[in-house]
Each structure stands twice: as structure tokens, then as C-alpha cells.
Design brief:
This protein has about 325 residues and is mostly beta strands. About 5% of the residues lie in helices and about 40% in strands. It is built from 2 helices and 19 strands. Strands 2, 3, 4, 5, 6, 7, 8 and 9 form an 8-stranded antiparallel β-sheet that branches. A hairpin with a 4-residue loop joins strand 12 (about 215-225) and strand 13.
């Protein structure tokens, strides 16, 4: 049930890639039990596509160009004034794009575009129109360019995956949301949720925290309610070390538990704890999307373990320098 990972980052606090909420779907005929997971995501594997959002607008992700300025690949292009000005902050501001003409070297690795893409919203599926490719400034700590195609006709937020074919119309996208976050010291008394509190108490009493000098700690619970069940992560980031004179001997790490929750019981699943959102159907969670800013991965909960990964695509690159870490990581002076 427990997993421990050494942190290569030192980002303080929790950062959500997607945040939002939706009313729980009411109980009703066909909305109970686990058989509803079925094979809803076992559609043509080649039809899955990654969807990204920049500047509040959705795009079909096509290609990443690393390091190279796009005009070096296509001298016919003229960069707009907004190019290379926003950096990582541009993710939340207006997107800086420019058209890419047919035959441009920037499209050399781009397959033929579908005319439409079935996307997944908080209320069901929707058919989005796929526009002409554009170059999108995605540089952060390192230069990069996304080649994307605008998606129009469907109101967001949208799931980070779509399909070129048909999907069940009742699939819904539920973005992850942090529901409880706290600093903690020697006990878990301040944690409101009983499952969260019990898990944290267990971790504090076991290795590597038992008997260690706790220098800093943060815990977080992220959850979405599909109606019949929740999908949830419980995490504890910690900093331990006994040598007051040498901070570089201190160690940071993270404990995590992720799974499906019914009442105060959580059934673990083999999915990253830093997930972006889930696909729900008739009150049940059928799929989980992970990957954060850099990747899009779709996990089918009807198939256990790695065999349940239906799709994976890298959508952004920054040499892992701009957005290291994830939920519940801690900062410390000698962090790598």
C-alpha cells in the first residue's frame, strides 16, 4: 500500500496542473457496482490523442521542437512580437501562436490531422473541430515550441485525452482538486479527514520517519467524487536529518497512497499519485489521466498495473527545470 520515492526537486507546497470541480452524479439505475468500468476505454489504440490547454484555449498536441528556434527550421516564418517573452508564466496568460504553412519543415513529423476529435467534458463527450496547425511558444527554462491544432466547438475544461473515433457519450472529465493540505510535526491531530489522519499516523510511526528528526513536513489529500466512489491520493512529503551542523546530510522523501475510496476504505491502484483528473461513467471511475505539464498518460482501471496504460505522449519539454516536483514536495537548503 505504501510507496516511497526520493525527491529530485525542492519545490515548496502543492501545485495542481488542473483544478476544478463538478457536482457528483446522483445514484440511479446502472450507477452501482464495479462492472460498469467494462471496456469503455478499449477503443482503437491509435485513435487516442493528447489535448493541451494554453492561455485558456484547448489544442490537439502534435509535436514538440526542443532547443531550436522555429525560424531556424523554417526561415520563411516571422516570429510574432509575443514570442519568447512569457516563459513558464505564459501557460496562464494569452497563448502566443503563429500559423504554420502547409509543407513547412515544422510539420515534418506531424501525421495527417483528423477533421474532428471526440473530447471529454465535465458533462459528457463532445465533437470538437480540429483547426489548422499553429506553432505555440512553449519555452520555459529552455527553448521549446509546440506544434498544435486549435480545438473549437466544445466548452471546457476538457480531459487531457481525446479520440479520433467515437467514445461513450456518458464519459465525464473530473479534474483533480486538493481538498486538504497541511503542515504537520509529530502527529496528525490537525488532519480533519479520518482516513487521511489514520494513514499519516501509520507513516509517522514507521520507517523512515520513526525515530528520525523531522525538519519539515507537508501532507496533502487530493480527491474527486464520481458519485458512487472517489478517486483519491494521500501524500506526505518530509525532510529528516540528525546533523544540525550539516544540512546536506538531511534527506527529503515522500510517502504516498492512491486509489479508489468507498467511505473510509481506500483500495490502492497502480497509478501515479500526482494525477491530473479522472474519466467517470455513471458514478464510477473508469480511467485516470496522469503526466502533469510534460506528459499525457491514460490509465484504464479495468486493467491492472502497467497493462492498463492505454496511451502516453510527451507534450512539453523544459529539461525538467521549470516545474520540478509536484504535490507535497518540500524545499531545503541543500536540495539537488
Amino acid at each position: 500500500m505504501q510507496a516511497f520515492a526520493r525527491s529530485a526537486s525542492f519545490v515548496l507546497g502543492a501545485s495542481l496542473v488542473a483544478c476544478g470541480g463538478t457536482p457528483a452524479q446522483p445514484q440511479g439505475p446502472g450507477n452501482t457496482g464495479t462492472a460498469a468500468r467494462g471496456d469503455l476505454l478499449a477503443v482503437d489504440a491509435a485513435g487516442w490523442r493528447a489535448v493541451v490547454e494554453r492561455g485558456g484555449a484547448p489544442y490537439l498536441a502534435l509535436r514538440i521542437i526542443e532547443f531550436t528556434d522555429p525560424v531556424e527550421l523554417d526561415p520563411s516564418l516571422t516570429l510574432p512580437a509575443c514570442w519568447n517573452t512569457g516563459g513558464i508564466d505564459a501557460f496562464d496568460g494569452p497563448a502566443c501562436t503563429m500559423p504554420v504553412p502547409a509543407g513547412s519543415p515544422l510539420l515534418a513529423e506531424v501525421a495527417a490531422l483528423p477533421a474532428t476529435l471526440t473530447v471529454i467534458t465535465e458533462t459528457g463527450t463532445c465533437t470538437a473541430t480540429v483547426g489548422a496547425p499553429v506553432a505555440l511558444d512553449s519555452h520555459g527554462c529552455e527553448p521549446s515550441t509546440m506544434i498544435v491544432a486549435p480545438l473549437t466547438g466544445c466548452a471546457g475544461p476538457l480531459a487531457r485525452v481525446g479520440h479520433t473515433g467515437a467514445l461513450d457519450g456518458e464519459l465525464r472529465w473530473l479534474p483533480a482538486q486538493v481538498v486538504e493540505e497541511a503542515e504537520y510535526a509529530d502527529d496528525a491531530a490537525a488532519i480533519r479527514d479520518p482516513l487521511h489522519r489514520a494513514q499519516l499516523t501509520t507513516w509517522i510511526a514507521a520507517e523512515p520517519l520513526a525515530g528520525a528528526t523531522l525538519r519539515g513536513a507537508r501532507t496533502l489529500r487530493a480527491s474527486v467524487d464520481a458519485g458512487n466512489e472517489r478517486f483519491e491520493s494521500i501524500l506526505a512529503g518530509y525532510l529528516i536529518g540528525d546533523d544540525d551542523a550539516d544540512e546536506c546530510t538531511w534527506e527529503t522523501g515522500r510517502l504516498e497512497l492512491v486509489g479508489l475510496r468507498h467511505g473510509d476504505e481506500l483500495t490502492p491502484v497502480a497509478v501515479e499519485a500526482d494525477w491530473d483528473g479522472v474519466l467517470a461513467w455513471r458514478g464510477n471511475v473508469v480511467g485516470v489521466v496522469t503526466g502533469g505539464d510534460r506528459d499525457v498518460e491514460l490509465h484504464d482501471l479495468s486493467v491492472p498495473g502497467e497493462d492498463g496504460k492505454r496511451f502516453a505522449q510527451t507534450v512539453w519539454w523544459d529539461n525538467e527545470e521549470c516545474t520540478q516536483g509536484g504535490w507535497a514536495y518540500l524545499e531545503y537548503p541543500c536540495g539537488p
